[in-house]
Each structure stands twice: as structure tokens, then as C-alpha cells.
Amino acid sequence: MLRVRATEGSVMFSPVTGQNAKRAAVRKALDRHKVYITAQSFSDGAYRARVLVDGEAYWVDEFRLAQLQQGLTPAELELTPAADD
């Protein structure tokens, strides 16, 4: 017998649905690109970070860094790869 339990908002979820949702969340986290900060600079009150995303380096400000860390891609942010230092 399949047991179904009510949750907040009177939406019904089965244990299978809950498990599928957890797996989807894990899959999404694993698929998200990793952002590595390779250098940081503070100049004239402005923050800049050199980041490595999928093998390509970019210089970004604090706002763009946060967007990358939330999962947006460099292409979505229209970032230009950093010149070789």
C-alpha cells in the first residue's frame, strides 16, 4: 500500500516524490560549474577577483563573482576571458 502524507499547504507528496526532488537537487549542484578565485585585488575601494571557471580565467567585480557562484555562466554574463598574465 502506498502511503501519502500531507505537507504544509495541503500539497500531497509521496516518499518517492520527495526522494526524486532530493536527487534532482544533488544533480543540479553537481552540474553547476565550480568557481576558483586565483587572485584578488583591492584598489581605490574597488574589489576585483581573477577567477577560473571551466578552465578559463576572468577578472570580475564582487557582483559578477556572486553571480558566478550562484551558477550563472561566463557566457550568460558576457564575460571576456582575461589576457594571460
Structure report:
29% of the residues lie in helices and 32% in strands. It is α+β, with helices and mostly antiparallel strands. It has 2 domains: 1-31; 33-85, no CATH class. The strands form 2 sheets. A 3-stranded antiparallel β-sheet has the order 3-4-5, covered by helices on one side. It has a two-stranded antiparallel sheet with strand order 1-2. The chain is elongated and about 60 Å long. The model has no long low-confidence stretch (mean pLDDT 84).
Topology of this structure?
Elements: E1 5-6, E2 12-13, H1 15-31, E3 35-43, E4 46-53, E5 56-61, H2 62-69
Antiparallel strand pairs: 1-2, 3-4, 4-5
Structural class: alpha+beta
In terms of quaternary structure, what is this?
Answer: single chain
- How many domains would you count in the coordinates? 2
* Unreliable parts: none
If helices are DSSP runs of H or I spanning 4 or more residues, what is the number of helices? 2
Shape, please?
Answer: elongated
Order of helices and strands: EEHEEEH
State the total count of DSSP E strands: 5
What's this model, at a glance?
This protein has about 80 residues and is of the alpha+beta class. The protein is built from 2 helices and 5 strands.
Structure characteristics:
single chain; 85 residues; three-stranded antiparallel beta sheet; 2 helices; elongated
